[in-house]
Amino acid sequence: MLAYILNLVTLISINAVLAITLNFIMGYAGIFSMAHAVFFGVGAYVAAFIALHYTASLFIAVPIAMAAAGLLSLVLALPALRVRGEYFVAASLGLQVLGVTIFAEWKSFTGGLGGIIGIPPADIFGYALADPRQFTVLAVACLVLVIAITNILLRSSFGRNLKAIRDSESAAHAFGKNVAVIKTLSVIVSSALAAIAGALYAFYLGFINVESFTLDTSVLLMAMVIIGGTGTLLGPIVGTCILMLLPSAFSYMSFLPSTEVGAIQQIAYGLAMVLLMIFRPGGLVGSSRAKEVG
């Protein structure tokens, strides 16, 4: 039972990092990206490559993974400067499809469809985190760190400029804000922080393949943010907990046919999204708080 709880807490922490970093551009910059799973994957693959060929030190693998994701995010940032709304969603969707194709075909780096196996445990100051309890503590600590970084950024002048652009890009530009630079930096920060989750995921499982970084993952992350509440600090965490705990709840419902549990989960996710959009468009934590934080 303890192992199950530790596994659940670890996976919730990793997905919460992803949801928070997606919310950073969705809720505070008004940039709706369907390619967040790509940066998650870049973080995972780069960290795995460094661990297998050089060192499993977190202090080396994670910064390199963040740098790689940050550089790649410029591919997403460029269309963000030229298009908005549904046009940007389409552009990010194209990047998501392209990213998955590269993950599947670049066999010398990603292992192709078979993935990468035998990733060594994460290393901190020469000490391997082989105990699941230690890794759970690490995952929670990284979640707290990402929350702190996000909170600091949002309370800074950069965060205020970001919200101004979200509310009215033309007005922000009229007040002398460098919209292009601010939007680019927001995408870079979001992608680099998402790579932390990717590195943790690779070290935790010891195995990764393209199935973890598909469009389904990007949609699930967006659902976590929307259900919890965009433009709030707590919303993505609440959304993550709900969507990560729902499968566990369904698995304990013995009256449900085991072969249909997956389909029922998808129906529940979709129904929750529809009901929230109708009755609580700001999300569970949003609504009145969305105006306060946003």
Q: Would you summarize the structure shown here?
A:
With 294 residues, the chain is mainly α. Helix content is 74%, strand content 3%.
How would you describe the overall organization of this protein?
By secondary structure, the protein is an all-alpha fold. It has one domain (2-214). The protein contains 13 helices and four strands. The chain has helices spanning 2-29, 36-53, 58-82, 86-105, 107-110, 132-155, 157-167, 169-174, 179-205, 215-228, 235-251, 261-279, 288-293, and strands at 116-117, 123-124, 127-128, 207-208. The strands form two sheets. The chain has a two-stranded antiparallel ribbon. α3 packs across α4 (86-105) and α7 (157-167) packs across α9. The longest helix has 28 residues, at 2-29. The chain crosses the membrane at residues 5-25, 31-52, 59-81, 87-104, 111-129, 135-154, 185-207, 219-246, 267-286. It is found in: Cell membrane. It is a multi-pass membrane protein. This is Branched-chain amino acid ABC transporter permease.
